[in-house]
């Protein structure tokens, strides 16, 4: 099926999520820059499933998180702009395409900004661990991360099921 290519304006929700995600992410980068001279040469390089440090590395590895975050935000932003290429149920048609596109785009926007905020949180927590202000990411990090990314998908699937 050739899906229509629609130009749907961004919603206030999408703008708000982008602003919130960017504030957290940029805040983490500012924290990195401000803390740089105090950060020791060895910082957490990896965490296990319990949120405990299982590898230490150079403090320059802290730049990996912002680089991945920017790349992810940029790539997911591109996919947001082309909702007609997303995967949809077979029942999509010209009369319901706008509803499917908007719902899919909002889900992608939320997940994009949750990931951005989580990368910011990991960066801040890694700096805090390196400085001795914290011990780990915390046992709750992995469950919260998984819920934060799975719940929007579940809500989107429920919304898809309600589109006529």
UniProtKB/TrEMBL annotation:
Membrane spanning stretches: 20-39, 59-79, 110-131, 137-158
Keywords: Membrane, Transmembrane, Transmembrane helix
Pfam families: DUF1648 (PF07853)
Domain of life from the UniProt record: Bacteria
UniProt xrefs under InterPro entries: DUF1648 (IPR012867)
DUF1648 domain mapped to chain residues: 23-69
Keyword Membrane: yes
Name of the molecule in the record: DUF1648 domain-containing protein
